[in-house]
Amino acid sequence: MEKFVITGGNRLVGEVSISGAKNAAVAIIPATILAGGPCILENVPDIRDVSVIIKILYEMGAKIRYIDKTTVMIDTTRITSHVVPYEMARHLRASYYLLGALTGRFNRAKVSLPGGCNFGVRPIDQHIKGFEALGANVSIENGMVSVEAEHLMGAPIFLDMVSVGATMNIMLAAVKTKGLTVIENAAKEPHIVDLANFLNSMGADVRGAGTDVIKIRGVEEMHGATYSIIPDQIEAGTYMVAAAATNGDVLVKNIIPKHLEPITTKLRKMGVDVIEYDESVRVSRTEELIKTNVKTMPHPGFPTDMQPQITALLTLARGTSIVTEGVWDNRFRYVDELRRMGANIQVDGKVAVVEGKGYLTGAPVKATDLRAGAALIIAALAAEGTTEIEDIYHVERGYEEMEKKLRELGADIKKIEFPGEVLPKAL
Length: 427
What we know:
Active site: 117 (proton donor)
CATH architecture of the largest domain: Alpha-beta prism
Structural class: alpha+beta
Number of domains: 2
Strand order of the largest sheet: 21-22-1-23
Protein name: UDP-N-acetylglucosamine 1-carboxyvinyltransferase
Keywords: Cell cycle, Cell division, Cell shape, Cell wall biogenesis/degradation, Cytoplasm, Peptidoglycan synthesis, Pyruvate, Transferase
Radius of gyration: 21 Å
CATH superfamily of the largest domain: Enolpyruvate transferase domain
Mean pLDDT: 94
Largest sheet: 4 strands, mixed
Pathway: Cell wall biogenesis; peptidoglycan biosynthesis
Strand content: 15-25%
Low-confidence stretches: 116-121
Family: Belongs to the EPSP synthase family. MurA subfamily.
Number of strands: 23
Helix content: 25-40%
Shape: globular
CATH class of the largest domain: Alpha Beta
């Protein structure tokens, strides 16, 4: 097994380039199943979740060729099975996008229930509601979700709650149906717009992505395309918070500033200087952090995937801050690990009260999920002394070369091996 060893106290200074968006890539890659020819995807992040979903397609018969580290050719025309290998898909939350893509192509699909980070129940009832509205029968047995239909028809679908996963899955299933599908109360995240743009580049007719009403007029055929995935807003936000935590001065490059507005606004309220350019932001801090309150909400609100990182930053601001989680039920599991580093945080359900002391101290901790791991890294960079972070495979699911990027900014971070269970590379 591997862990990060971080000695805090170094300012992060310099430039960091942001990779392609994880949350877009894990939906766009399954979407290639709908293409009638090869697709070339650019700005693909080199992360574990992407390698797993690409391997799943390969095991199903797709032709895969890496043109360079971040560009991959995927040809799914040879895929004939609608069943996804159980052992691989169950470790990946985004495996459920294969349900929509396979259903859109074959009118049926069989995929294991989603895995990924464990910070709350991940119901797929809104996904099922959408598939059934399109005319499919859905059943769950032995941990597998089966979707079957004689044929799919466009339909009006109102989501009972804003769900990114359900919105994207219904889009995937609906693009080749007959008729018009209208998704109301749709999620509006940037990666939903990215998926819609990719589907349209393959010949689909998807309109309204980025608003709460998405209209999909089914087409008979779709073709291959070349497409570049958007930059990762959560990776960018993580480095922005890390710069603020270390009194740093960092230029975060290859980003879309508009996607970062909720994060930028909150950092400015905390006394952090953020200067926006066309495709970059410069983040610096010279004054003490100011306490503030944060509530996560669906886009364009403050993203839930940035909640652990901003909470780590708030421990460094003197005074009381309140963090309210408006999306997931159990996303404060990492708080116990921050407490090991001296944080004073009390959690009651979806609310955390942070009594900031202005400093943290190094300690042995474990990443409980992907974004929790990022929060612990931020805390360690700012802490006095040395922190050892175990279970870093969570971090590698969603951050490309984080150790290398931080080291280039001046962080004292290294990855070391220690005895323990070896995680299979594909997982």
